[in-house]
Specification:
- The structure is a single chain.
- The radius of gyration is 20 Å and the shape is elongated.
- The chain has one domain: Four Helix Bundle (Hemerythrin (Met), subunit A) (Up-down Bundle), CATH 1.20.120.
- Helices cover 79% and strands 0% of the residues.
- 24% of the residues are buried.
- The chain has 192 residues and is an all-alpha fold.
- The mean pLDDT is 92.
Length: 192
Amino acid sequence: MKMTLEEHNERNAKSKKMLLWFAMVSMFMMFAGLTSAYVVSTSRPDWLNDFVLPQAFIISTVLIVVSSITFHMAKVTMKKNDRSATTMWLLVTLGLGIAFVVAQFYGFSEVIKNGYYFTGPESTVTTSFLYIVTMLHLAHLFAGLIVLLVVIYNHFKQKYNSSQTLGIELGAMFWHFLDILWVYLFFFFYFY
């Protein structure tokens, strides 16, 4: 039995989405391991119990949540073949993603300004954990920004339309994952 082009494209889309799910689950497991190590480390005598997350991390959390909404809107408008609205939503998402990164680094500078260091002899295990986990998330976010730039490039090359949205869907899935992951990490550090 010969497969039609539509069936082939549907199977291809399912395969790519499944691979992305496997990648996202493995990334989440890495962060789950790090937060587990964080929990175990809180019993150390040199743990900082009075450490408070800077305001910049709250701002960055709001930025990434809003960027997830704007990426979703890009997908919705592309399914309606509204190219100009899709362009706007994708560029707003890119701006919010960059603003998230800036806010994260501003948060790091606030931590240092408050006398806490991430590395070196003056560092603590508390701030080192914060640094490692947020830098790993930022590394994944840089990958997300590259994905977003590829989606924007393909959008300008008119590779997407109302019936061909796989690239935007995959990009949005990964972006939403990064959003959910950061919200988990933020609330973990904020309340634990």
